[in-house]
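Just curious: can you write whichever protein you like plus the matching structure tokens?

***
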Amino acid sequence: VQLEESGGGLVQGGGTLRLSCTASGYVNNIVAMGWYRQAPGKQREMVARITRGNSTDYIDSVKDRFRISADFAQNVVSLQMNNLNSEDTAIYYCNAHYLLDFEGNGVDYWGRGTQVTVST
């Protein structure tokens, strides 16, 4: 599975950005996709996640500002980010969780990351 992200960039505080990620390769067993981020000097954290069943999960700091959506038929996941602030500055990574067997074992695939910088 290969993941290609797009949509990062520089934006002023209060602005918006939309990230997109397309999965290719053997994608049939992808059961969830999401976005993680890593700021300088910090650990990578989950930002938003969505399953094939359309269940979503967000980190508390973005719940009222970000929205994740996905089209699993097209293997695309997007993240609409509104009202961005300086704490959102990070490298954002696309993630796909691939199910290996019926026992629930899986593996995570990662994109290369896209930089999001919010200026104050």
In short: The first strand starts at residue 2 and ends at 6. The mean pLDDT is 96. The CA atoms of residues 38 and 46 lie 9 Å apart.
